Amino acid sequence: MEYEQSIIEDLELLGIKADQTTWSSQYFDKMYDLAIQMIKEGKAYCDDTPQEQMRAERMDGLKSARRDRTVEENLEIFEKEMKLATPEGLKNCLRAKIDYKCLNKTMRDPVIYRCNLTPHHKTGSAWKMYPTYDFCVPIVDSIEGVTHALRTIEYRDRNVQYAWMQEALHLRPVYVWDFARVNFVRTLLSKRKLQWFVDKKYVSNWDDPRFPTVRGIRRRGMTVEGLRNFVISQGPSKNIINLDWNIIWAGNKKVIDPVAPRHTSLLSAHLVKLHIDGASESVEDKPKHKKNPKVGMKKVYYSPNVLIEQQDAATIEPNEEVTLMDWGNVIITDIKKDSTGTVLSLAGKLHLEGDFRKTSKKLTWLDAEHNIPVQLTDFDHLITKDKLEDGDNFEDFLTPKTEFDSFAIGDVNLKDLKKGDIIQFERKGYYILDHTTDGKLVFFTVPDGKSVNKYSQKN
Fold first, then answer.
1. Where is the domain boundary, 179, 201, 222?
2. Where would I find the Glutamyl/glutaminyl-tRNA synthetase class Ib anti-codon binding domain in this sequence (predicted)?
3. Burial, 179: exposed, middle or buried (Cβ in 10 Å; 0-12, 13-18, 19+)?
4. How high is the pLDDT of residue 240?
5. What is the CB neighbour count within 10 angstroms for residue 8?
6. Same-domain status, 165 and 288
């Protein structure tokens, strides 16, 4: 039930709402009848060979000792033992009678029914045995009117089995179209391996922004349009590729940049107060996006006392003229530092007549009184190796630290944002509002396709 709901939620995140939802369990009666039909036509048999032995025999192309059971014996076991999950039934499974010597090992009499006493989330305990994926899918696809089944190429060996099932069951054939799976550098796509990260608490859940899941990348700031454009750009290729994440995020930037409101944030560590002679307290409405007035307006607070980041203050020379973004020029008249060179304070005089085109420093700033606390969170990849080779254990390539929090202050307009809103902090990059904690708005970085690995050294 959990996975079913996750699929539905992922589709909703992509803006897809189904006209109708069907479940394979709706066809359990039909599949049971088709299994009986296969047994009667000599195309399936019940087998109580121990699982490990059966696996070995399939690998070696050996005939099962139960392969020549009579139709009557197979029906007796399937209808009376397996269906009721008796001790004898639990020992058995139903196998398709295809070709135990076939070079394509998926055709070596695959299991199509087996007992399972776990109640089904839709049918409860009505059934004690269930069809396998290999039996279920070709039946449901054909019955439901699927014309083209799209499957990734790792299923290619199973295509002939898929077709055999439909032919053996006298069902309408479905055309199978193979396409290659897209892999990404330093990324695991195996559900089993991703579950390991969840179980070990390396990540919060399947919607963790470090995960290559729909909900994970949506939470990181991927838009539906950006994702759709990426998928279309790849086309139905049959070549397996290993892409850099920058490709998909660069496409996403083209979607968000024209509409992302511009805001200001300053890292809290060693903020520097700049006192500006000639400035007065005021508030003005300014466009959130200079190139797109439809984005709306924001309030900018001005005063004689503003804050700038330490890293900016450290670069300023005495008597230098700098530009405060969305305001104008200031001539720095005084710089105070401690014995370590850390800037303690600055003083200057407002020079609105100055030409911003002639200054080399364009600085972000905030009024010392009108700002709110925010947290900026960035992430690294979960593994350090671009592509794991056969035999590699992913646990040997774990990135030691993958989450990085910075504390900052932001402009007061941020308080009007809602979860999921994407903005640009000027001179910092794109961010998405994820949640609030301890009175702070928490923003996640949205990659822009140009970022380099800032944290861990690639192996």
1. 179
2. 260-348
3. middle
4. 82
5. 14
6. no
Distance CA 18, CA 15 (A): 10
Type of residue numbered 378: D
Closest by CA position to 100, among listed 147, 40, 56: 56
Within-domain flag for 131? yes
* pLDDT score at 457: 44
User: How many percent of the chain have pLDDT more than 90?
Assistant: 88
Task: State yes or no: pLDDT of 455 exceeds 80.
Answer: no
User: Does an H or E element contain 183, and which?
Assistant: strand 182-184
- Same-domain pairing of 7 and 136: yes
Phi, then psi, of 316 in degrees rounded to 5 = -80, 135
Residue at 134 is within a domain: yes
**Does residue 300 share a domain with residue 159?**
no
Q: Range of 13's domain?
A: 2-179
Confidence at 210, pLDDT banded by 50, 70, 90 = very high
Of 210, 220, 164, 165, nearest to 186 (Cα)?
A: 210
Could you give the CA distance from residue 351 to residue 329 in angstroms, rounded to a whole number?
Answer: 5
Residue 107 DSSP code: G
Specify the DSSP class assigned to residue 82: I
Summarize the confidence of residues 308-331 as an average pLDDT: 97
Which amino acid is it at 91? K
Residues 144 and 290 in one domain: no
pLDDT digits (tens, 9 = 90+) for 366-396: 999 999 999 999 999 999 999 999 899 999 9
Count of domains observed in the chain: 2
**Is the Cβ–Cβ distance between 253 and 229 less than 8 Å?**
no
Q: What is the pLDDT of residues 60-97, one digit of tens each?
A: 999 999 999 999 999 999 999 999 999 999 999 999 99
CATH of residue 326: 2.40.240.10
Domain end position, chosen among 179, 206, 234: 179
| Full DSSP string of 360-403 | S-EE--EESSS-EEEEEEEE--SBS-SSPPTT--GGGGB-S--E
